[in-house]
Structure formats: structure tokens, C-alpha cells
Design a protein that fits this description.
Its cofactor is FAD. This protein is an alpha+beta fold and about 375 residues long. About 55% of the residues lie in helices and about 15% in strands. Strands 1, 2, 3, 4, 5, 6 and 7 form a seven-stranded mixed sheet that branches.
């Protein structure tokens, strides 16, 4: 059991689910942890591990929401960049095809993505559109016979520099509705340029994408994506995954601080024996436990069919806020050692900032929950 799982939530996994979690935990510990700081420092993605993900046999597999969430937790607990890579591929890209693709499209694309023979990306955010992307989407799609012509720009697109398939969301010029298209990564007119100088999720290969008269067959338009409501279905499902990732980062921060407090000696005794240090550790443990409990209940709501937008919005807003606190307290406990990569926590502090912002800012998710509890929309 994980050191930070004080209430034993992991025991809620079935025996088969626990086996899968252990397999992923071992992979992250042996394959990712030893190279994470170096890859993060060089802002390079360990592409040699992509096929190793296939060996885990988890992408596109049916499973409970609790299992899927716990897998996100396990990845983020070692490295948030690797969790993000997997979330973009399996959650956003494959999730779009599952939710909005026809049966033929699902059969054509999902098997190869499940084995990581094809890596996916998800292109929604634009240089001038983030929180207002529902109404402000500027990338356009124009039908020309059996072909669509896409023009526009996208930003912050994870996996895009090496993706085989990119799910691009564009506004149909004919009816002004948002539609989804599966674009080959090497399609003529589609250019992905890596975003440099990031201070968070440095391993993730985020890109600016330029689309200039990119031609997409009608057969590659997601047949059940006919408005932004369909896009939102995908985001609602993946937003809960970010809450789980936040818990993973919290667990890592807590585990780092706890281990350090037992090893670091000051005034002739381990600092774990000092009251103020224990106070920090208990505050961290409280945040972890509350957030993990929220995510577990969220998974139950997803599986019993009573899940609503405000459930994932509240979890994302709350858990990522608590994550920032825990990461900061852990860095505080390590003092000067907390700002060098040697002790890992500096990477988690930086990466927490990206998780806090993506898949809907705290403010936007707050308004979603506020609308649900008051019956009044405060969106402008």
C-alpha cells in the first residue's frame, strides 16, 4: 500500500485491477523513475518507452473508472509528463474516437492506438482561445465534395511533434458548428512546431500546429461530432483524469517529504521528530486523503451512470488546488534541497502548475459548479 493512502482506498480495487495497478507501478518505478529528472531537464520525451506502454496492455481496455483513475495516479506519482502523454493518447485522442467516431472509424483506428503503433494527439486549444474555446474557436473547416479543407492554428498540443493521428476540432463554415477530424500527423499543410522554454511538463512535446489548406476525407471526419456539446463529452470524461493525476503528484510530494524527514538530521535528531514538521506532514496527508476520497466517489458516480459535469469540475478544481499546496509544503520541508532536481520535488512543484491550468482553469471549473448549485450562469 502507498504511504500516503492512509485510509486504504487501494483496497477497493478488485484482485484483477490490483494486478494491473501493480504492473504499472513496477513499470513506472523501474523504467521511468531512473530517467525522469534527466529527460525533464533536457525537455526530451523518452520515445523508446512508447512501445513499452503497449506491454502494459492498458490503452483502450475496458475497465472501471476506479481502475482508470488509479492508473493515472500511478503514472503521475512518478512523473506527471508521462501521465499527461498517456492521458492525451488514451483519454483525449482515443476517447474522442470512442465517443464521436462511427463503428467503422473505431475499428479502423483504435486497435493500432491500443498497441501504440499509432500515437494520438488532441488539438482543441488555440493561440487566442483557451477558456473561451467553445465560442471562440477560429480554426475552420470547409466542405469541398467528399473532402474537408482545414485552416487555422492550434497551441499547447501534447504529443503533436510525433503523433501519427491528431484529432483536430474546427468550426464548419456552413453551419458554424464545431466538428472533429482525424488528421494524419504528416498530412500536407499540417506543421507541428515544438514549444520551447517551458518550466512545467518539460518532457511533454507540446506543439504549435499550423493548418494550411489541409485536406481531410469525409471518411475521416468523426461522424458523431456535430457540435461543441460532443467535444464537451470528451472533456467531461478526461477532466476527472486530471483530478487523479493531481492526487498522484500529491502522493509523490508527501512520500518525498516523509522519507526526507526521517533521514534529515538537525539538532541531533531526525526532523521527523519536530512538531512543525509533523504539522506539515499531517496537512499534506489530509489533502491527499480528502482528494483521493473525492476521486474514488467520482469514479463510483461515473460507473453507476449518475455522473454530471459539476462532479468532474469540482474534483479538478479542488484536487489541483490542494496539489499545489502539498507540493509547496513538501518543497518547504526540504528547504534548499527542494529546489534541485536531485530530490525530485522541484520537478513536481513545477509540473503541478501545468496540471492546475490545463483541462479547464480553477476559475472556469468553479463557474461550472457554481451554475449547478445556484441555477444561475455567471459565464459572460
Amino acid at each position: 500500500m502507498l504511504a500516503g493512502d492512509l485510509y486504504g482506498f487501494e483496497d477497493l480495487l478488485s484482485k484483477d485491477e490490483a494486478t494491473v495497478v501493480q504492473r504499472v507501478r513496477q513499470f513506472m518505478a523501474t523504467e521511468v523513475a531512473p530517467i525522469a529528472n534527466d529527460q525533464w531537464s533536457r525537455a526530451e520525451f523518452p520515445t523508446h518507452l512508447i512501445k513499452r506502454y503497449a506491454d502494459l496492455d492498458i490503452a483502450g481496455k475496458p475497465g472501471s473508472s476506479l481502475l482508470n483513475g488509479w492508473l493515472a495516479l500511478e503514472m503521475a506519482r512518478v512523473d506527471a509528463s508521462m501521465a499527461t502523454f498517456y492521458g492525451v493518447h488514451s483519454g483525449l485522442a482515443m476517447g474522442s474516437i470512442r465517443a464521436c467516431g462511427s463503428a467503422e472509424q473505431q475499428a479502423r483506428w483504435l486497435p493500432g492506438m491500443a498497441t501504440f503503433d499509432r500515437v494520438g494527439a488532441f488539438a482543441l486549444t488555440e493561440p487566442t482561445g483557451g477558456s473561451d474555446v467553445a465560442a471562440g474557436l477560429r480554426t475552420t473547416a470547409r466542405r469541398d465534395g467528399d473532402t474537408w479543407i482545414l485552416n487555422g492554428r492550434k497551441r499547447w498540443i501534447g504529443n503533436a511533434t510525433f503523433a501519427d493521428l491528431i484529432v483536430v476540432w474546427a468550426r464548419d463554415e456552413a453551419d458554424d458548428q464545431v466538428k472533429g477530424f482525424v488528421v494524419a500527423g504528416d498530412a500536407p499543410g499540417c506543421t507541428a512546431t515544438k514549444i520551447e522554454n517551458k518550466i512545467a511538463l518539460r518532457m511533454v512535446q507540446n506543439a504549435d500546429i499550423t493548418l494550411v489548406d489541409v485536406r481531410v476525407p469525409e471518411a475521416d471526419r468523426l461522424q458523431d461530432a456535430n457540435s461543441f456539446k460532443d467535444t464537451a463529452k470528451v472533456l467531461r470524461a478526461t477532466r476527472s483524469g486530471v483530478a487523479w493525476e493531481a492526487v498522484g503528484v500529491m502522493l509523490a510530494a508527501y512520500e518525498i517529504a516523509l522519507a526526507y524527514s526521517k533521514e534529515r538530521t538537525q539538532f541531533g535528531k531526525p526532523i521527523a521528530g519536530f512538531q512543525l514538521v509533523q504539522d506539515l506532514l499531517v496537512r499534506m496527508a489530509g489533502n491527499v486523503t480528502a482528494s483521493l476520497g473525492m476521486c474514488v466517489r467520482l469514479a463510483q458516480l461515473q460507473d453507476d451512470g449518475s455522473y454530471r459535469d459539476e462532479h468532474s469540475a469540482l474534483a479538478k478544481a479542488y484536487c489541483t488546488t490542494r496539489m499545489r499546496e502539498v507540493a509547496g509544503w513538501s518543497r518547504e520541508l526540504l528547504a534548499g534541497n527542494g529546489i534541485v532536481l536531485d530530490y525530485d520535488i522541484g520537478r513536481f512543484v513545477a509540473d503541478a502548475e501545468a496540471l492546475y491550468s490545463y483541462e479547464g482553469t480553477r476559475e472556469i471549473n468553479t463557474l461550472i459548479v457554481g451554475r449547478a448549485v445556484t441555477g444561475e450562469s455567471a459565464f459572460v
